[in-house]
């Protein structure tokens, strides 16, 4: 997203035993088979959160999520990353309170 300032909300370095995703990620049709790091970011005034997946070969893919909770839940589903394992930037996280989903 050229020209739009990003704000990293949290990150985690993935150990080798958790570098495989439970979902398939591709870039230009080529699969990313292992990952080294995850980050959650916001961009400018856009609503939502991006879960950034950094491939072991240096490429990056992402998924968009409506809430911070949704992004963290996706990371847990894909990689088994628990919330307490994230390196969260607490001053920024305070801006994004949890959202309750009523069904």
Structure commentary:
With 103 residues, the protein is α+β, with helices and mostly antiparallel strands. It has one domain (6-88). 16% of the residues lie in helices and 37% in strands. The strands form two sheets. Strands 6-5-4-1-7 form a five-stranded antiparallel β-sheet. Strands 2-3 form a two-stranded antiparallel ribbon. The radius of gyration is 14 Å and the shape is globular. The relative contact order is 0.23.
Based on CA atoms alone, the radius of gyration comes out at 14 Å
Order of helices and strands: EEEEEEHEH
The number of helices is 2
Extract low-pLDDT stretches.
Answer: 97-103
The N- to C-terminal Cα distance equals 33 Å
| DSSP strand content | 35-45%
Secondary structure category: alpha+beta
Question: Domains counted in the coordinates: how many?
Answer: 1
Largest sheet: 5 strands, antiparallel
Large-scale geometry? globular
As a percent range, the share of helical residues equals: 10-25%
Side by side, the strands of the main sheet go 6-5-4-1-7
**Average pLDDT across residues?**
84
Using DSSP, what is the number of strands?
Answer: 7
Secondary structure blueprint with pairings:
Layout: E1 6-13, E2 25-27, E3 30-32, E4 35-43, E5 49-55, E6 60-65, H1 68-79, E7 87-88, H2 90-93
Antiparallel strand pairs: 1-4, 1-7, 2-3, 4-5, 5-6
Key terms:
two-stranded antiparallel ribbon, 7 strands, alpha+beta
Q: What is the gist of this entry?
A:
With 103 residues, the chain is an alpha+beta fold. It contains 2 helices and 7 strands.
């Amino acid at each position: 997203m050229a020209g739009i300032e990003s704000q990293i909300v949290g990150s985690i370095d993935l150990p080798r035993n958790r570098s495989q995703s439970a979902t398939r990620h591709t870039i230009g049709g080529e699969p990313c088979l292992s990952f080294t790091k995850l980050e959650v970011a916001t961009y400018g005034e856009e609503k939502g959160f991006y879960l950034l997946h950094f491939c072991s070969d240096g490429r990056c893919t992402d998924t968009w999520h409506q809430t911070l909770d949704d992004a963290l839940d996706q990371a847990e589903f894909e990689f088994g990353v628990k919330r307490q394992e994230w390196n969260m930037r607490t001053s920024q996280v305070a801006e994004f309170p949890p959202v309750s989903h009523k069904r």
